[in-house]
Design goal:
Layout: E1 6-8, H1 14-19, H2 21-31, E2 35-36, H3 47-57, E3 60-61, E4 63-66, H4 68-73, H5 75-85, E5 89-92, H6 99-118, E6 122-126, E7 134-135, E8 138-139, H7 140-147, E9 153-156, H8 159-164, H9 169-173, E10 182-185, E11 187-188, E12 196-197, H10 206-215, E13 220-223, H11 232-246
Parallel strand pairs: 1-2, 1-13, 2-3, 4-5, 5-6, 6-9, 10-13
Antiparallel strand pairs: 7-8, 11-12
Helix pairs in contact: 2-3, 6-7
Pfam families: AP_endonuc_2
Protein name: Sugar phosphate isomerase/epimerase family protein
Domain Xylose isomerase-like TIM barrel: 25-225
């Protein structure tokens, strides 16, 4: 099986980061993670200080998740942040209530993707289960994939949310050849609640997921767990150790 570099989406550690921002990041590196998705640092910490800490810990900044208003109105600030911190991708999440809203997003995504590409950066849409709503018999996510320019718009597929949306993650990922550089991996507990689980502790078939990830050119796999039943640092450690057992890292 292909070996992947493994990063973390620190939303999993959001409460710990509010209490001790750098301390939480240090624990991410201690577990063994090699990359991290980052946002603008909190007040009192400069981007230069964040970059210095990541370099000290051997953590690669991978991307920044942004809001829709920020994407529309403050793209220059986002570009400057990514360049300073050494990240490559801008990531957006959003849901859609109408077909027209999806088509508006297609236009925006292509425009933003073109501008980012001119700066050597990339644009990714990160899915939840929201995009598995259908308009005229077609998923909103399928519309985004089919209507956007493959060179300008790519995706950060989330395995849990694809499953929650009613599709098989590995099968769905096959639609995204060379368009899924970052893959969010999280597992799902069995049962009706479909609660989040550490990678390898739930029902998702990660052997198939990683096989397809290799086929479609995924660069990084990124652990995220939106909610944890136990200490969040134990959760990210369990996911990492299970990935080691799977032979992925």
């Amino acid at each position: 099986m292909k070996k992947f570099p493994v990063g973390l989406q620190p939303y999993t550690l959001r409460e710990a980061m509010e209490k001790d921002y750098f301390g939480a990041i240090e624990k991410v590196a201690e577990v063994g993670y090699k990359g991290i998705e980052v946002g603008m640092p909190p007040a009192g910490i400069t981007v230069a200080q964040l970059k210095a800490k990541l370099d000290e810990l051997g953590l690669q900044a991978l991307s920044a998740h942004v809001g829709l208003d920020q994407l529309k109105n403050d793209l220059g600030t986002i570009i400057n942040f990514l360049k300073e911190v050494g990240a490559k991708y801008v990531v957006l999440s959003q849901g859609f209530e109408t077909k027209e809203a999806v088509l508006e997003a297609v236009e925006l995504y292509n425009k933003v993707g073109k501008e980012l590409k001119e700066h050597g950066l990339g644009f990714l849409h990160h899915n939840h289960d929201w995009e598995f709503v259908k308009f005229d018999g077609k998923y909103a996510l399928d519309m985004l994939i089919e209507e956007t320019d493959p060179d300008l718009v790519k995706f950060e597929i989330d395995t849990y949310w694809v499953k929650k949306g009613g599709e098989d993650p590995a099968e769905y990922m096959k639609k995204l050849n060379n368009r899924c550089p970052l893959l969010h991996i999280k597992d799902m507990e069995p049962g009706e609640e479909q609660f989040f689980a550490e990678v390898g502790e739930g029902i998702l078939n990660f052997e198939e997921i990683f096989k397809v990830a290799e086929e479609i050119g995924t660069e990084w796999i990124i652990v995220e767990q939106d909610l944890c039943r136990r200490d969040e640092f134990e959760c990210i450690k369990t996911s990492y150790e299970n990935l080691e057992k799977m032979g992925v890292i």
